[in-house]
Amino acid sequence: MTAKSRYDDLSSDRSQFLQIAREATKLTLPYLVREDENTKGARTLTTPWQSVGSKGVVTLASKLMLALLPPQTSFFKLQVDESALGDDFDPTVRSELDLSFAKIERTILEAIAASSDRVIVHQALKHLIISGNSLIYMAKEGLKLYPLNRYVIERDGNGNVIEIITKERIAYQLLEGQLPLELLRAKNSMYEEEEKEKDEYESAESEVTETPKDCDVYTHIKRDNNRLVWHQEVEDHILPKSHGKAPVDANPWLPLRFNSVDGEAYGRGRCEEFMGDLKSLEALCQALVEGSAAAAKVVFTVSPSSSTKPQTLAQAGNGAIVQGRPDDIGVVQVGKTADFRTAFDMIQQLERRLSEAFLILNVRQSERTTAEEVRMTQMELDQQLGGLYSLLTVEFLVPYLNRKLNVFQKSGIIPKLPAEVVKPTIVAGVNALGRGQDRESLQQFLGTIAQTIGPEAIAKFINTDEVIKRLAAAQGIDVLNLVRSMQEVQTEAQQVQQAQFQQEQQLANTQLRGQVMNAPISDPSKNPALAAELEAEGAPSMNPMSPEMEQTPPTLTQS
Q1: Tens digits of per-residue pLDDT, 525-540?
Q2: Cβ within 8 Å of residue 11, ≥6 positions away
Q3: Candidate from 93-102, 214-223, 288-297, 332-341 with smallest mean pLDDT
């Protein structure tokens, strides 16, 4: 069976989900899921009468993006499986590994920030909210999004993907050298005959506005044991350079669902859950706008038997004097004020319910995103959406991270990680925010010790070197040439100790010399033997009363 025929067979199961998606997109963002999918060029889309739906979709998608791929915060962490290393694992090596893992995490996050992944993921989240489904293809060059009207899917009873078929329209010129010449000639001759049937004006216009030489490309993805294999077909011909394969745990095809229902291959969107409120709000807003426009129209009436001429009244300026009677002139008014008030009150109730459903009420006040804001956003999502974050973690974050690690390791961006030792872990939910949670836990632990036992207990029982390394790893800071190693600290301490010892020795020698000089045995006046020895050597006597030691005052010469 060809990919095209298989696509047509699976489209019947998708039709009801696609119809709901088109109804929802008309009430929110009309450009996401279009009915005329094969038409090129700009088209005029019907704008909804209210903006609550579009605002709700964009706000909820932004909050989901903040929770899934938070900026300046890692959504995952690399951990060592200590059980795989055995009992001989040195605990002191763990801090060094954490520093290395933090560097790898920072490299991956920088690569994600430099790419367009967040743009595509944000667009996919909007599709999830409206239609409940979206497909992301993770190529080496970047991400590609397939909306619900561009692919079909089949799952087993456990929700595992069995088969995916995508459909996209490209030009025949891009397939030169990949299709048989007979097929290309047949297609070209068919288009040439169609062009001949047109008149000159139509053919000239078609050359400017139409691109007839387009074809549908089907990408057929199947599961083969523990891997996925795929190829592309055009006009029932397999393209020779389109084959690919990937393991299941690192495959580039990510079919996402907003809400999963047991037994259904497709998901349900958030807009479907509140379709009644969206339709009611749309109808009331349309009625209120049209009624307000009718009520705002000012129309004057003049009695047929009145002497006042309508033309004179229409041409009269402001403050002009017109001959006639005021009773003959009336104003048409729409007496629907009470009805407008009722509709307005109902609109306010619907807006309030939809704002709570799409998390519009809590407005972000901070100038930059913090870890606390991310944690509060995740808590809000878990409380309001009932486990949606966990579903997106399993179907998006886990395969997304596995694919990134696989591509980066093969390209040499990050070193090769042993799969049996290093385990990447998604830190999602309220209780964990990557390594930022490790930092907060460590700070709380140190604060508890200081408050309970005393600050001196930290210096006595806590390994300061280990604390510094773990804080640096939690912050994602590269400590190269920043934090001194234990050997450098010990060497510097020994140097300081030696310098202090030398100073103490010099001070002791100076004090001893002074004591010796002040002793009686060192005084020549009290030790005759020392005085005789000094005289024999020709040295001046140390006797303060000796003539050699007496100072003769200078003699003033009179001129």
Answers
A1: 656 665 666 566 565 5
A2: 152
A3: 93-102
Based on the fold, state whether residues 162 and 121 are members of the same structural domain: yes
Whether the CB-CB separation of 78 and 378 falls below 8 Å is answered with no
φ, ψ of residue 418 to 5 degrees: the values are -70, 120
Residue of 277, 293, 386, 375 lying closest to 334 (CA atoms): 293
pTM attached to this predicted model: 0.72
Q: What angle do CA 162, 168, 169 make, to 5 degrees?
A: 155
How far is the C-alpha of 141 from the C-alpha of 112, rounded, in Å? 12
Written as six digits, the tokens of 17 are 């989900």
* Main-chain dihedrals φ then ψ at residue 269, nearest 5 degrees: -90, 170
Residues 104 and 245 in one domain: yes
Residue 41 vs residues 44, 177, 211: alpha-carbon distances, Å: 10, 28, 10
Q: Across 38-52, 165-179, 190-204, which has the greatest mean pLDDT?
A: 165-179
Structural domain span for residue 129: 3-37+45-274+365-424
Degrees (nearest 5) of the Cα angle 224, 227, 233? Answer: 65
Longest dimension (CA), the chain: 158
Of 228, 226, 219, 225, whose CA–CA distance to 251 is shortest?
228
Residues 89 and 165 in one domain: yes
Three-class secondary structure of residue 259 per DSSP: strand
Are 222 and 1 in contact by the 8 Å Cβ rule? The answer is no
Residue with tokens 């001893």: 512
Number of domains in the chain: 3
CA 257 to chain centroid: 19
